[in-house]
Write a structure and sequence with these properties.
heterodimer; A: 971 residues; alpha+beta; Mth169, Chain: A; Phosphoribosyl-aminoimidazole Synthetase, Chain A, domain 2; 32 helices; 24% strand; globular; B: alpha/beta; Rossmann fold; two-stranded antiparallel sheet; 7 helices; 11 strands
């Protein structure tokens, strides 16, 4: 029987409401697009079917459509799909872009006994005939499609054809004439090949091949570029830095890792060597933790970029030891202001709200589908993130204690399992090391990766079976650099040979070097002892995961590959991994023009609190949190939203990962880019202090906390940016030593510049510190919501005069001169005292003070608990004289906590605090009102509902849709 | 006494299998988790168990529709063994994505016949987004053996497609007349509600969970297996001077199923 091509379009029945259309209309409205009428949506499938129209109808009826909800229309690709009335917009993935739906359709069809091939899914939208061309165009480009990966068809005269086979690429092995090339030509070759290698690096490669007496092949040069990329090698942090008359040798080793080694904490099981840091948890399990950045892909394609960011860090967990099982994820995002005027968005950039929607959906869809709770995180906003948003994704895994050690031995087979290899994500590692500009969207679209979470879930399910049966000796994920990095790393001390023809491909037409460096998602590489070959292939086959032997590790010390029977690569592992010349970079201390902010007028104090609660850095993240499945796996003990209304801003999350056990851990983070503009050293200390505070108030033992560093910085070839980095690294050492908390893993992204016109802009220096603290008994976990009236409110820690980098200073129109310093001598003891009070059951609530200071923290506790409170700004213990009312209420002195205590317990609590400064700042009250006093004067009072409303509105991007629950679809 | 034996069925993208199996084990059951490929190869595996649990997740990515591909496979290759399993006294529990599978499969509500024509759909939430939040459920029918003496439940939902829509008014009426609606989303007074967010998805008649005619097949959108322990309830830290109960509100559903098997099989 011949295969016939069909288009099957599934629409919404006219008597049902088209919810997707309603949402799109609201977003069109937000983007200033007027449609002048209704919008309707449909999903379509183009495919080839071994059968006739009756079979197509059956496929539609039994698989693709739901008769309760849908209409079905079947036509041929050559037919005119346009409606008699209205305009049609179609959105379809560009050829070669992953389409996860197609496999599922083939599988479902097979269960009906139907054979279909070449499935392509698409969306169709119908808008009123009166809609103008420019509105249709804008709608397609900015709302319905992402043109980096999708094509928009307006009023098409023919349907979408099923997937066309791409032609085979002719195999041509190119030798790059490097040996004779002058310096200028070397630079050109690097730029042309998107290699992101500098002159010295190219010259080193040249020297290597001159010595070998041959030119490199294209794939050899690519492999070196991938392996030597900033993304993989951290050239800046491990290089030499000249700063203030000193040469700093390897910032990473001399600051961050040095603290870990000097502290030598016994709970560290594996640090800075594997794909994630590993710490002890209980007798049977370790915890693994890794946080990744995925900034550049998210700037271009927020949904795909953020989704694959999550997918990538989950694979890091799966690639740690012999494979940890991901148990909870974290996410931290930095965006441009959500209320940025449309005309202030630079050319080539997406509006921050669009980026935010896309990023949140991407993380949501990947994490939720994988079944990993996303339970902790943060959001920051600043104008300088408009062209370069930051996306941090973290993953904690559970690893059996006897599955930590990994090794590759000569003779082991190289097994590639998971998704097929396509042209996606080519040059991701080198792309992330380049500056973004207004054409990044078009020239780098190949660097965009599209994920398929279900594929990764399948790999996870199968590999855990293989792990528990001991069927492989080593594993790593295919991330940046694809196979070139994964095989190159695993075979670093042995040697490896790969037969590129064996790699399963999504479609024809990939060249040998594309196969090798493709960053197609959802792939893992295993070193399999030959005797387990059949067993491991059977395990993967049972779960429908494609697994293929693509080569073998050997003892050659060389990385070699063949294609079509011809050798294409023969690289020395030693040169590949150790040949990179060390860079020397110049750093200078940034000269800052700092001013004091205009002091807050007494009359403005009352308006300040609602304004701060509505500030996007403070405002409720519920819109984000609720879209994440934060409870799957049933380990969630303290949710990210707390209190009787389930809407209070918790300080983090507590997870009890082993069902039936009360041992748990807390996750918290610290990030405040505002401070870095004033003092990057103090910014880093604040980030550590904040991360520690957040886990301790949840119940973690401050003596069992591990932390991770993630630097996102502007281009570090600019000496000021590098100077900021040096300062922040030094603070990391000092902070870790003071708190005795080791860094266990880290990642840096040091090229976050983007060009607007001729101007190159850097993001603010942004350090994220992620903390994981053990909660020995989750029954002692604590939340920040006030519990009952009649309790005392205690502020622990003295309040200082400095306002540098605070929200109050920002409000006063300046950065301020001095960031309130973290007192590294005193702070650790405060954390220990807080933990003792929590464990003794002496606190009802505990919340740390961060952005917005005491007033914001106290108000949050009050409306979270729906318990009134009165605080007195005159009662604070001060560190300094003559603090203004604004500084007392809104200053951001670190290491401070607000606690709710029974009157009867006050003597015990204050005795336990000993010499630590504290003050009784208020009382909880029976009315639902929040009052600020300054001695005898009442400064302001608000109903809690007013404060909560200010807090919840700013980042609720769907407010108008939620209200509309009842209408339509009565049946 | 019989040890209840539970088959937890998973497919690519199922992700609540671990805790769902554990919830039954907490009440003395033995649970085994099988990939659907195993069951398709050997449908007789079903007969060796008392309970079939179809857990939450995103089977086959919910491509084409929530639960659609898994339902299609089960309908095509497991339909008859499934119907026989239920007729012979087997229990079936579908949670969230599992409920979507059972509806798409036609095991629920099965008004005309088990695996008959499609009578309802679980479709996009009115808010058109995935949401994880805790809800209150009122028990409005005692026909399900899973319900026992449960009066109300405080449990989380986590889905994007949980809005129940009936094919027509006849179906809607029949559900009520035949006492099939086991759980309804309720406001703080316990009254069924259409108001967001107490009714998180806009489901018709506030329907959150349904039984088949036998009372042995239950499907519900909320996740009782995430409300197993006292520590799962979001506000447990507010009771610190009282005691936090070991078991959470969702546990009773699994206990009832295990008790029923012990008493009847």
């Amino acid at each position: 029987m011949t295969h016939q091509a069909f288009c099957i379009e599934v629409g919404i029945r006219p008597d049902r409401s088209d919810v997707r259309a309603a949402r799109l209309l609201a977003q069109a409205d937000e983007a200033g697009l007027t449609l002048g009428g209704d919008l309707s949506t449909a999903t379509g499938y183009s495919l080839r079917l071994a059968g006739g129209e009756d079979d197509a109808r059956r496929l539609a009826r039994e698989v693709l459509a739901d008769p309760v909800m849908n209409t079905v229309r079947i036509f041929r690709p050559e037919d005119d799909p346009r409606p008699s009335e209205g305009r049609r917009i179609e959105v379809v993935r560009r050829p070669g872009v992953m389409d996860p739906v197609s496999q599922s359709v083939v599988r479902a069809a097979a269960s009906l006994g139907l054979t279909i091939t070449d499935v392509r899914s698409w969306d169709a939208y119908l808008v009123p005939a009166s809609t103008a061309d420019d509105v249709v165009d804008e709608l397609g480009r900015t709302l319905l499609a992402n043109t980096a990966i999708e094509e928009v068809r307006v009023d098409p005269e023919q349907g979408i054809a099923p997937v066309a086979e791409l032609p085979d690429a002719p195999f041509v092995l190119r030798h790059v004439p490097l040996r004779e090339a002058p310096a200028e030509e070397l630079r050109r070759l690097s730029e042309q090949g998107c290699l992101a290698l500098d002159g010295e690096e190219m010259a080193t490669i040249q020297g290597h091949f001159v010595a070998l007496g041959r030119d490199p092949t294209d794939i050899e040069l690519e492999t070196i570029a991938q392996t030597w990329s900033e993304h993989c090698k951290h050239k800046t942090l491990t290089g030499l830095v000249e700063y203030e008359g000193e040469t700093l040798d390897n910032l990473l080793k001399s600051t961050i890792a040095r603290a870990t080694h000097e502290l030598d904490r016994e709970f560290c099981r594996s640090v800075f060597v594997d794909n994630a840091g590993v710490v002890a948890f209980d007798d049977e399990h370790h915890l693994t933790y890794k946080v990744e950045t995925h900034n550049h892909p998210s700037a271009i394609e927020p949904y795909g970029g953020a989704g694959t960011g999550m997918g990538g860090v989950l694979r890091d967990t799966m690639g740690t030891g012999l494979g940890a099982r991901p148990i909870v994820s974290t996410d931290v995002f930095c965006f441009g202001p959500p209320d940025l005027p449309l005309d202030a968005v630079p050319k080539g950039c997406l509006h921050p709200r669009r980026i935010m929607r896309g990023v949140v959906s991407g993380v949501r869809d990947y994490g939720n589908r994988m079944g990993i709770p996303t339970a902790a995180g943060a959001l920051c906003f600043d104008e300088r993130y408009v062209g370069n948003p930051l996306v941090y994704c973290g993953s904690v895994g559970l690893l059996p204690v006897d599955r930590l050690e990994k090794v590759t031995l000569p003779g082991d087979l190289i097994l590639l399992a998971g998704g097929r290899t396509g042209r996606d994500g080519i040059h991701g590692a080198t792309f992330s090391s380049l500056e973004l500009h207004d054409e990044s969207e078009t020239v780098s679209s190949g660097a965009v990766q599209i994920g398929n979470a279900i594929e990764e879930k399948k790999v996870l399910d199968a590999m855990l079976t293989a792990r528990d049966q001991g069927l492989y000796r080593c594993v790593t994920d295919c991330g940046a650099g694809g196979l070139s990095s994964a095989v190159g790393e695993m075979g670093e001390t042995t040697g490896a040979h790969v037969v590129l023809d064996t790699v399963p491909l999504k479609y024809h037409g990939l060249t040998h070097d594309e196969i090798w460096i493709s960053e197609a998602q959802e792939r893992m590489v295993y070193a399999v002892p030959p005797e387990h070959r059949e067993a491991i292939l059977a395990v993967f086959a049972a779960e429908d995961v494609e697994a293929t032997i693509i080569g073998e590790f050997n003892d050659s010390g060389q990385l070699t590959a063949e294609f079509h029977g011809e050798p294409v690569m023969d690289l020395s592992m030693q040169f590949l991994h150790d040949g990179l010349p060390r860079q020397t970079r110049k750093a200078v201390r940034r000269r800052r023009d700092l001013h004091d902010p205009t002091p807050l007028a007494a009359d403005d104090v009352a308006a300040m609190l609602p304004a701060l609660l509505a500030h996007p850095n403070v405002a409720s993240k519920a819109w984000v949190i609720r879209q994440y499945d934060h409870e799957v796996q049933a380990g969630s003990v303290v949710k990210p939203l707390v209190g009787p209304g389930h809407d209070g801003p918790g300080d983090g999350a507590v997870i009890a990962p082993v069902l039936g056990s009360r041992r748990g851990f807390a996750l918290g983070c610290g990030i405040n880019p505002n401070l870095g503009d004033v003092d990057p050293y103090q910014m880093a200390l604040h980030a550590i202090d904040e991360a520690m505070r957040n886990v301790v108030v949840l119940g973690a033992d401050p003596d069992q906390v591990s932390i991770l560093d993630n630097f996102s910085w502007g281009n570090c070839e600019k000496p000021e940016n590098l100077g900021d980095l040096v300062e922040a690294c030094r603070a990391c050492y000092d902070g870790a030593m003071a708190f005795r908390t080791p860094f266990i893993s880290g990642k840096d992204s040091l090229n976050n510049d983007y060009r607007v016109g001729n101007e190159s802009r850097s993001i603010p220096p942004t350090l994220l510190i992620s903390a994981l603290g053990i909660v020995p008994d989750v029954g002692n976990a604590m939340t920040m919501d006030l519990k009952a009236p009649g309790h005392a409110l205690l502020l622990v820690g003295a309040t200082g005069p400095h306002l540098g980098g605070s929200l109050l200073a920002q409000h006063g129109g300046a950065l301020g001169r001095t960031v309130p310093p973290v007192d590294l001598t005193a702070a650790p003891a405060v954390l220990v005292a807080i933990h003792a009070l929590i464990n003794a059951g002496l606190l009802h609530a505990c919340h740390d003070l961060s952005e917005g200071g005491l007033a914001v923290a106290a108000a949050e506790c009050a409306f979270a608990g729906d318990v009134g409170a009165e605080i007195d700004a005159a009662a604070l213990t001060l560190d300094g004289d003559d603090l203004s009312l604004g500084a007392r209420l809104f200053g951001e002195t670190p290491t401070r906590f607000l606690m709710e205590v029974d009157e009867a317990d006050l003597p015990a609590v204050t005795a336990a605090l000993g010499a630590i400064p504290w003050s009784r700042v208020g009382t909880t009250t029976p009315d639902s009102v929040f009052v600020i006093r300054d001695g005898d004067t009442e400064v302001a009072r608000w109903p809690l509902t007013v404060l909560k409303a200010a807090f919840t509105a700013t980042l609720d991007l769907d407010h108008e849709l939620e209200a509309n629950n009842g209408a339509g679809d009565a049946a | 006494m019989t040890t209840p034996s539970v088959l937890v069925l998973r497919a690519a993208g199922t992700n609540c299998d671990r805790e769902t199996g554990y919830a039954f084990e907490l009440f003395g059951a033995r649970s085994e988790t099988f990939h659907i490929n195993r069951l398709l190869d050997d449908p007789a595996l079903l007969e060796r168990h008392h309970v079939l649990a179809v857990p939450g997740g995103f089977a086959y990515g919910d491509d084409v529709g929530a639960g659609a591909v898994m339902a299609c496979e089960m309908r095509g290759r497991l339909g008859e063994p499934l119907v026989r399993f239920v007729e012979q006294g087997g229990l079936v529990l579908g949670i969230c994505n599992g409920f979507q599978v059972l509806v798409r499969l036609g095991l629920l509500p099965g008004l005309s016949a088990p695996l008959g024509a499609r009578e309802m759909s679980l479709t996009d939430n009115r808010s058109h987004k995935y949401e994880d939040r805790w809800v209150d459920l009122s028990v409005t029918s005692r026909r399900s053996v899973f319900v026992g003496d449960i009066e109300s439940l405080h449990v989380p939902v986590a889905h994007a497609e949980g809005r129940l829509v009936c094919l027509d008014d006849d179906v809607r009426r029949q559900l009520i007349d035949d006492d099939r609606v086991v759980f309804r989303y309720a406001d703080e007074t316990g009254a069924p509600t259409q108001d967001y967010p107490d009714n998180p998805n806009g489901s018709v008649d506030a329907i959150a969970g349904l039984t088949d005619a036998s009372g042995r097949v239950l499907g519900l959108m909320p996740h009782p297996e995430r409300a197993l322990f006292g520590f799962h309830v979001p506000t447990w830290t507010r009771n610190r001077n009282g005691s936090v109960p070991d078991l959470g509100p969702g546990a009773a559903l699994f206990r009832n199923a295990c008790d029923w098997v012990r008493a009847n099989r």
